[in-house]
Design a protein that fits this description.
The protein is of the alpha/beta class. The protein is built from 15 helices and 14 strands. It has an 8-stranded mixed β-sheet with strand order 5-4-3-2-1-6-8-7, sandwiched between helices. A 6-stranded mixed β-sheet has the order 11-10-9-12-14-13, sandwiched between helices. Strand 9 (209-215) and strand 10 (219-225) form a beta hairpin.
Length: 404
């Protein structure tokens, strides 16, 4: 029997998202989430998707789960109950989402002690994410030390950016000493969607230039030339770029100095303000685009302004990346907002006919879970809506690595 299953783990500070996939046919066997780890009201939701257990639907348990080790053991027990446990000989690898790989990790990597130590060393670049990623890796290694554990990095897809796109124009020695440069994030999503868009067009990925707009609570854009990222909107951290649910996006750096000197805010207070209390939330009090659209439709001026600011920033990046690529074959919208908010797609592309962009308004307004084109027949540049699949991308990269 050839092992073909990959367990994908996405460990957050107080949560673990997971999926078990069979790469023989790229099918999902189970999905689940453990949340509120460390609290009395911890919650595990597990859903078997194939086999005898799938007929029962989701299984849920609520109660204290002390830490990530207990969480992963609970996940293992749920999978074992389905007959797909971690002790299965069909399990080929565990794929771990790791947010920051710095300049050291530019491709999926089998984790050993040295690699794990390097991921720990990168914690200052991603203090909110890498520690949880490390914990998930440590626990998974303890549960199945005999199979490959593979790290797939959010930053890796963007490591192909030319140096002039990755560098900030600050003192070179300071930049080198403190690893200050643009890394980009959401890389697994941008990689998956850029390839899926080429497939939707029926063309080899090497022949397609695409602008990918990953629009969720976090949002980022990328310019992908022939399957290779040449520019992206997020920078050293996920704060740079588009207006997001709670993040400000692009900002004059002097705003930080002003808030410290004149406002008396501490560094930590400014960090919290820009990452957790800005964006749509900061402008109108809601970070859910559905609520922003509802309120704007009812005439709420704060929501209208927040939406207009969000769309204006999108237009700027579409225009800028059109210039970077020179030739654009497609603009692809993905993630929660990108896939579901047709009003965002319509507003972002309105007035961009000179760039070859035009929507079929009826197709754009129609809901579908499938990848699809929503551009007008006469448009020079295709507009695609492509549901992202970061778990499948992580599993694909992990499986390819361990079966080379």
């Amino acid at each position: 029997m050839t092992a073909s299953r990959v367990l994908v783990l996405n460990s957050g500070s107080s949560s673990v998202k997971y999926q078990l996939l069979d790469m023989a046919d790229r099918s999902r066997l189970a999905v689940g989430l453990v949340e509120r780890i460390g609290e009395e009201t911890s919650r595990l939701v597990h859903e078997p998707l194939t086999g005898p257990a799938s007929g029962g639907g989701k299984r849920e348990q609520v109660g204290p789960i002390a830490d990530h080790e207990a969480a992963l053991k609970a996940v293992a027990a749920e999978l074992a109950a389905d007959g797909t446990g971690l002790d299965s000989p069909e399990l080929a690898a565990v794929g771990h989402r790791v947010v920051h790989g710095g300049t050291r990790f530019t491709r999926p990597t089998v984790i050993d002690d040295e690699v794990l130590a390097e991921i720990r060393n990168l914690i200052p670049l991603a203090p909110l994410h890498n520690p949880a990623n490390v914990t998930g890796i440590e626990v998974a290694r303890s549960l199945r030390a005999d199979i490959p554990q593979v790290a797939v990095f959010d930053t890796a897809f963007h490591s192909t950016m030319p140096e002039y796109a990755a560098r900030y124009a600050i003192d070179a020695q300071v930049a080198e000493a403190y690893s200050v440069r643009r890394y980009g994030f959401h890389g697994t999503s941008h990689a998956y969607v850029s390839r899926a868009t080429a497939a939707l067009l029926g063309r080899p990925v090497e022949d397609v230039n695409v602008i990918v707009l990953h629009l969720g609570n976090g949002a980022s854009a990328s310019a992908v030339r022939g399957g290779v990222c040449v520019e992206t909107s997020m920078g050293m951290t996920p704060l740079e770029g588009l207006v997001m649910g709670t993040r400000s996006g692009d900002l004059d750096p002097a705003v930080v100095f002003h808030l410290a000197r004149v406002g008396g805010l501490s560094v930590d207070e400014i960090d919290s303000l820009l990452n957790k209390k800005s964006g749509l939330l900061g402008m109108c009090g809601d970070n859910d685009m559905r609520e922003v659209l509802r309120r704007a439709g009812e005439g709420d001026e704060a929501a209208r302004l927040a939406f207009a600011t969000y769309v204006h920033r999108l237009k700027k990046y579409i225009g800028a990346y059109s210039a970077v690529l020179g030739r654009v074959d497609a603009v692809a919208f993905t993630a929660g907002v990108g896939e579901n908010a047709h009003q965002v797609r319509e507003a972002a592309l309105d007035g961009l006919a000179e760039l070859g962009l035009a929507l079929d308004l009826e197709a754009n307004a129609a809901r579908s879970p499938q990848p699809r084109l929503v551009s007008a027949d006469y448009a020079r540049v295709a507009v695609a809506v492509v549901p992202t699949d970061e778990e499948l991308e992580i599993a694909t990269q992990a499986y390819a690595l361990v079966t080379e």
